Amino acid sequence: MRNGKIRVGIMGLGQIGRHLYHLALEKDDIEIVAVADIGKPEIIEYLLKSDGVDEPSCKLQDNYLINDKFRTRMLQLARPEDVPWDVLDVDCVVDATGRYRRRRDVEGHVRAGARRVILASLPSEPIDRIVIPGLNESHAASADKMISAGSATTNAFALLLQSLDQSLAVDCASMTTVHAYSSDQSLQDYAHEDFRRSRSAAENIIPNNNESARWVEAVLPKFAGKLSGYALNVPVQRGSLLDINCVMQDAGVTVNQVNDAMRAAATRHPNLIGVTDDPIVSSDVIGCRQSLLFDARATLKAGKKIVKVLAWYESLGHACRVLDVVRQYSKLDGNGGES
After folding, report:
1. 338 near 27, Cβ under 8 Å?
2. Rounded Cα–Cα distance for residues 242 and 223 (Å)
3. Cα→Cα distances 319→20, 138, 286, 322, 323, Å
4. Is 317 helix (H, G, I), strand (E, B) or coil?
5. DSSP assignment of 234-288
6. In the prediction, which pLDDT does 337 show?
7. DSSP-derived secondary structure for 119-147
8. Tens digit of pLDDT for each residue in 144-197?
9. Could you give the dihedral angle defined by the CA atoms of residues 280, 286, 291 and 294, in that order, rounded to the nearest 10 degrees?
10. What confidence category does residue 235 fall into, taking pLDDT thresholds of 50, 70 and 90?
11. Phi, psi dihedrals of residue 135, rounded to the nearest 5°
C-alpha cells in the first residue's frame, strides 16, 4: 500500500478486467498499477474508451495508461510467471483471464513476486480459499495467498440458497443458469475441444456444464451431495438468469414466504441482494452491481415441497465482489480499505 491506496495488478483486461479498471476510478482507495494482457496496449486503451462509461478519460503514453487518479503500466505478456509483480510492488494481483485456474498456474503469479492472487473465476482445483462476500468473508485469513472470489453464477446461487435456507430450510436444490455467451465461445461454428461449444454462440442456445454447484457445496458443506447445476449459454451479450428448483423441508412453505425471505435478505445485504416486482428482462439487469436481483414475480410452488425461483445477475456485479475481496484482505493486512 502506498499513499493510502491498495496497489492492484490485473492480468486479463476482458470484460471483468475492464469493469475492475472502471470501478477503481470511482473510489480513492484502489489504484491499478499494472495490467498484463496478450492484447496490444493501444487496443486495450481503445476498448476501455469504447465501454461507454462516463469517467475521467485515460490516455496511453510511454507504455502507461494515465488518468486523473493513477497511472497503469501496460505489459503485453501471456503467462503469470512472466509478469514482474515484485518490481511493480503490487499488494495483490487479480487474475481476470478465466484461463489460469490450476493451482500451479496461480502459483506462477506468486513466483513472479505477487504477495497475493485473487482469481475472478472459480479454480479448477483447490487453492487456499474461496471467498463469497455475504457468505464466508469472515473466514478469510491473512495467511491466504491464493484465493478465488467465486464467479457471478456461483455467488448468486450461494447467496440465494443461503437466504432461503436460513429462513425456510432447504433440503436440496438444482440450478440452471441461462447465461450470456462468454469470450471463449466462437461467434461462428469453429472447432473446439467441446462438441457443443464448437457451435456459434450468436445463433444457438448451447447446453454447457457448470461448476457452481460443486463449489457452493464446498462453501456450504451442509449441502454436500445435494446440489446440481447446468448452464445454457444463449445469444445475449450481458445479463444472465438463475433458474433454481429448491426442495423445501416443510411442505407448507408458500410463495409469499419465499418472497418475504428474499426481501429480508435484501434488507440485510442491500449491496449484494436486490428484489424486483417489475416484469424485467435480461437487458434490464445490465448495470446491476448486486450479486443477484431476485425476481419476485416469477416464484412458483410446484407440488408439495418444490419451489421454483428466478434471479438475475450480470458481470458488473461480480466485478464489484472481486474488489470487495481485495478490500477484505487489505483490512486483514492492516491496510484499511473502504468499508
Report:
1. yes
2. 18
3. 6, 20, 13, 5, 7
4. helix
5. ES-SS-EEEEEEEEES-TT--HHHHHHHHHHHHHH-TTTEEEE-S---GGGGTT-
6. 52
7. ESS--SS--SEE--TTTTGGG--TT--EE
8. 999 999 999 999 999 999 999 999 999 999 999 999 998 888 889 999 888 998
9. 0
10. very high
11. -120, -55
* Gap between the Cα atoms of 130 and 132, Å rounded: 7
**240 within 8 A of 213, measured Cβ to Cβ:** no
Q: Where are the alpha helices (DSSP H) in 66-172?
A: 85-88, 103-111, 152-168
- Rounded to 5°, the CA angle 22-28-31 comes to 60
What domains can you pick out in the chain, each with its CATH number?
6-127 (3.40.50.720), 153-315 (3.30.360.10)
pLDDT in tens, 27-57: 999 999 999 999 999 999 999 999 888 766 8
CB 240 within 8 A of CB 179: yes
Q: Are 213 and 150 in contact (CB under 8 A)?
A: no
- Contact yes or no for 185/201 (Cβ under 8 A): yes
Residue 339 has a pLDDT of 43
Q: How many CB atoms lie within 10 A of CB 113?
A: 17
For the question of whether the overall pTM of this predicted structure is more than 0.85, the answer is yes
Grid cell listed for 289: 452491481
Q: Which three cell numbers stand for residue 86?
A: 515484485
- Cell numbers 481485495 label which residue? 326
